[in-house]
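Need residues for this backbone.
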């Protein structure tokens, strides 16, 4: 009897430990992106070229040396546990550290492609620190208002209408979010607007999707397409050309047959971009580690599967699939691209 009691107690004690170890193992098992074709490292800035630096998720810093734009500024990188159990707010220390590390002191615009927390939450804080305009949907505008931004520093976009920032022309085109599980749709307010000013801290569900856009950034040195979530609307890019495409890859391996072909047709093929860089595949629940930011754990995202599907379709479209290590800068120059 006593022996049985001891064994039952031991089993009861061991079960949570076993579960903990299992969860830890599942969340530590990560694919590695380094086996994929990598963008060659350029060690020095090229005068007159357009520079693009990927800073994790769909955060891109784009500059021609005079005008500086940023997409989806997200630096807080709140942990999985805090996203699920706590109210969220921008992490001032992490935002300041990133702005310091990448010497970002002035921006002209922060462009937000949809209003989920990993795209919109930090964008007002970054815009306010850098004197930038916050640009996006009415939902993103409400994130800006809730953060205390002046109305004069917020711009609500009209899809298809070009906005000028010196030599840059920025166009938001109506697009869609990557399809995801129904419970995640409910948690993240898919297809729902943020209809009132949103003041953090707030639960993750407060940052609803709003509208999702494909973003086209045109410049004399080259045109860039940014698809910050792996969704699309048929014909979204009709009539628009790009020299380089940054496309979100996360979630592609979980879609219906033919989805990735349709996705590539509406982004890469439609824009004619000869080079395609996947974004949003880093584990944004972990702190930033330049050049070394790990991919999502396999239990959340099959990076190999998504990259394989995407790179096959990109190849079939006659374009090149290249991985840009986080924190590395690409230089784009029109005369070199089209000799
Ligand atoms: Zn999203």
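Answer:
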């Amino acid at each position: 009897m006593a022996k049985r009691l001891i064994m039952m107690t031991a089993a009861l004690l061991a079960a949570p430990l076993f579960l903990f170890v299992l969860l830890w193992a599942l969340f530590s098992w990560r694919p590695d992106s380094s086996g994929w074709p990598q963008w060659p490292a350029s060690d020095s800035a090229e005068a007159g070229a357009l520079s693009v630096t990927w800073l994790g998720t769909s955060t891109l810093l784009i500059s021609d040396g005079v005008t500086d734009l940023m997409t989806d500024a997200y630096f807080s990188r709140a942990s999985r546990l805090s996203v699920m159990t706590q109210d969220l707010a921008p992490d001032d220390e992490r935002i300041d550290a990133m702005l310091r590390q990448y010497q970002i002191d002035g921006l002209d615009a922060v462009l937000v492609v949809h209003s989920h927390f990993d795209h919109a939450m930090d964008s007002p804080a970054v815009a306010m620190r850098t004197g930038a305009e916050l640009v996006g949907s009415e939902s993103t505008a409400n994130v800006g208002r809730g953060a205390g931004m002046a109305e004069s520093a917020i711009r609500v976009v009209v899809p298809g209408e070009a906005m000028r920032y010196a030599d840059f022309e920025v166009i938001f085109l109506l697009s869609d979010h990557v399809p995801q599980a129904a419970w995640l749709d409910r948690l993240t307010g898919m297809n729902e607007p943020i209809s009132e000013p949103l003041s953090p801290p707030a639960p993750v569900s407060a940052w609803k999707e709003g509208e999702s856009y494909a973003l086209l950034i045109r410049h004399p040195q080259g045109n860039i397409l940014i698809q910050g979530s792996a969704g699309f609307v048929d014909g979204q890019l009709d009539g628009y050309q790009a020299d380089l495409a940054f496309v979100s890859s996360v979630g592609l391996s979980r879609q219906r047959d033919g989805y990735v072909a349709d996705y590539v047709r509406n982004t890469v093929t439609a824009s004619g971009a000869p080079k395609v860089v996947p974004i949003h595949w880093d584990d944004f629940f972990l702190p930033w580690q330049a050049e070394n930011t790990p991919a999502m754990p396999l239990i959340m995202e099959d990076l190999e599967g998504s990259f394989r599907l995407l790179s096959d379709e990109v190849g079939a479209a006659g374009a090149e699939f290249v991985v840009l290590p986080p924190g590395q800068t690409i230089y784009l120059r029109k005369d070199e691209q089209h000799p």
